[in-house]
Design goal:
Low-confidence stretches: none
Structural class: alpha+beta
Number of strands: 6
Helix content: 25-40%
Distance between the termini: 28 Å
Mean pLDDT: 92
Radius of gyration: 14 Å
């Protein structure tokens, strides 16, 4: 997945907003809370995708080659894809969608209603 494909995919999820910050990282939020990031953090020039995940997914994913606990976000159960192809595009999209749902569920009922999110 390219950064452009990542941005297009995230833009199609409900009630998302986008900012570019932290050294040109593409940061996607729902209700003002981050659920996915595409950055160039680390060695090399390939895009690195980071996303929030469930406790179980976190435990499984960080054992896979090419996936690491996300820098600065690991204690909140975030994973970063370090190597191209560590997850295929469909799997990456599924994890990003799950991240969106996890973060949406943490919003207040009022916020979810204002954003049109049914959780």
């Amino acid at each position: 997945m390219t950064r452009d494909e990542f941005d297009i995919f995230c833009s199609r999820l409900p009630a998302t907003t986008h900012v570019v910050q932290w050294g040109n990282a593409s940061v996607w939020k729902v209700g003002g809370k981050i659920f996915a990031i595409c950055s160039r953090w680390g060695d090399g020039d390939l895009p690195r995708f980071s996303f929030k995940c469930s406790d179980i997914s976190y435990a499984l994913l960080i054992q896979q080659d090419g996936l690491i606990p996300a820098p600065y976000l690991a204690r909140a159960k975030w994973v970063q894809m370090e190597e191209e192809g560590a997850l295929d595009d469909d799997s990456l999209k599924a994890y990003i969608e799950a991240a969106h749902k996890i973060i949406s569920a943490k919003l207040t009922r009022k916020q979810r209603n204002e954003l049109g999110l049914a959780v």
